[in-house]
Write a sequence for this structure.
């Protein structure tokens, strides 16, 4: 949110521990969530080069769904100069490995977010608030697909850019579901780039934030046992015919 940049190299920061904070830089490895007979979210890590505090925060696992409840993932622009609109950018990166339970594969993955925004004052469309998110997926299985058809952009049915006039406020919701069934992926690399930005003019303000107990979520669907059995039988049949 503050637009400051890191003062140390990434290599130097890694020596300081799992959570590292310097002016305009923050990173934290929250470790693993799940595993065993459930989906494993491995080395869940957030990094930001715009703020010196956590944006996503520590995740909570419910079933095969990973929830984040951020309290400080926001962007705000107060009244600016009429000839030089003030802009604020907040960027967070969320990375992790996602492993299917033994004997299963990842059928589908969904990422979603929710929050609110507010624009005040008498101004033009130069006063605005915006949200965006894109996901890169890499298949980690050896000798398989590698990079998939990404990045996958989050979709916001009610829009992702909000402007004056008039002065107003509202809620944004975004999500994207990616069907991976044809790849039979058992392990993948998840890399999300998530942005909030605001711009204002003289006499206006703009604000946007992720908000709520499920402000950001990642969910994974694995095949039902019957579906998995049919797949195994189908593969066995193809091998016999070959």
């Amino acid at each position: 949110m503050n637009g400051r940049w890191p003062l140390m190299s990434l290599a130097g920061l890694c020596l300081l521990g799992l959570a590292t904070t310097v002016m305009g830089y923050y990173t934290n490895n929250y470790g693993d969530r799940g595993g065993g007979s459930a989906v494993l979210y491995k080395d869940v890590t957030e990094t930001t080069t715009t703020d010196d505090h956590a944006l996503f925060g520590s995740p909570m696992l419910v079933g095969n769904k990973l929830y984040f409840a951020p309290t400080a993932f926001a962007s705000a622009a107060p009244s600016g100069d009429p000839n030089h609109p003030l802009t604020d950018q907040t960027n967070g990166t969320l990375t992790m490995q996602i492993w299917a339970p033994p004997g299963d594969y990842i059928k589908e993955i969904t990422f979603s977010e929710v929050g609110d925004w507010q624009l005040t004052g008498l101004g033009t469309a130069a006063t605005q608030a915006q949200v965006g998110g894109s996901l890169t997926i890499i298949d980690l299985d050896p000798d398989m697909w590698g990079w998939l058809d990404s990045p996958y952009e989050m979709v916001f049915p009610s829009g992702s850019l909000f402007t004056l006039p008039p002065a107003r406020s509202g809620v944004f919701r975004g999500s994207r579901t990616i069907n991976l069934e044809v790849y039979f992926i058992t392990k993948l690399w998840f890399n999300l780039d998530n942005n909030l930005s605001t711009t204002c003019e003289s006499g206006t303000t703009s604000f946007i934030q992720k908000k709520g107990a499920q402000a950001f979520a990642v969910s994974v669907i694995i095949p039902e046992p019957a579906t998995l059995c049919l797949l195994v039988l189908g593969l066995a049949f193809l091998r016999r015919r070959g």
In short: Residues 10-241 form one domain. The chain has a mean pLDDT of 85. Helices lie at 10-14, 225-241.
